[in-house]
Amino acid sequence: RSRRAMPCRGCTSCRLVGWRRVNPFATYHPAVAFAFFAGVIALSMAALHPVYVALSCAGALACLAAVRGVRVALRSLAWAALLVAVVAMANCLFVASGSTELLRIGVRAVYAEALAYGLVAGGMLAGVLLWFSSYAACMGSESSLALFGRALPVTTLMVSQVMRLVPQFVRRGRTVAAVQDAASAAAPATACERARGRLRVTSVLMGWGMEDGLIRSDAMRARGYDCGARRTTYRRYRFGAADAALTAAVVALALANAALAFVACGQFRFYPALSALVPWWGYGVYALLLAVPIILWARERWLWQK
Length: 306
Prior knowledge:
306 residues; mainly alpha; two-stranded antiparallel sheet; 70% helix; disordered N terminus
């Protein structure tokens, strides 16, 4: 198996720390990456606990830095912090529960318990989105088709197309906006004209996307995707002993953490008063699961530097 590592060219922060952007699951069967991300995302959504959420966000940022570069991870950290702040403020304003009053905004009281719950809920949402970003980088359309192409051909094709079309839609939007902004003679003078220009960009993208959708639909129909016959696939990946061992380790860690997270979440309460956080060995098991891609990345880098 060939190892694929790609330097993060043009990223000053990556060059300063000697970081190499690499898919840590590139040398393994796609089932390994899918098992890891499925387990981690499920645990991140289920464990509404401050320590578990903090570990999930830290692991997601580290994994994102490994697979997409430090610059992307820092940008993601910016919008993730904003998302956490928005969710926390919304929870404080709309949920008047708790026993520790911090301040009053008019007749509405802001409680420390509501603020803590909003911070943890926002962190959980941000962590899940960051893990999905890493999943998209590690599980491309080729891996998805190889893993689910025979069992779910239509669903797999749809998911792989969406994973490709969303970034393409964003790039096209930037291109259309740049072309429109380059016409300095017709530059918008008022806020209404600027809003009308952005609506024009949306209209162009919708027409462009619908046209591409018709072309792709005809192309898939020409390839026999609606004939009803069971499709054959080209199997590039082989599930070997290393894949089985790593998958078993990931599944065992995920199951163990499911039980440990159930115990930890059952002992922690936000309302009516915050429970005290105590040191516990179960957090280390969860951190070990989240560190799997970093361990694989470090092993890959060590092998390249030998």
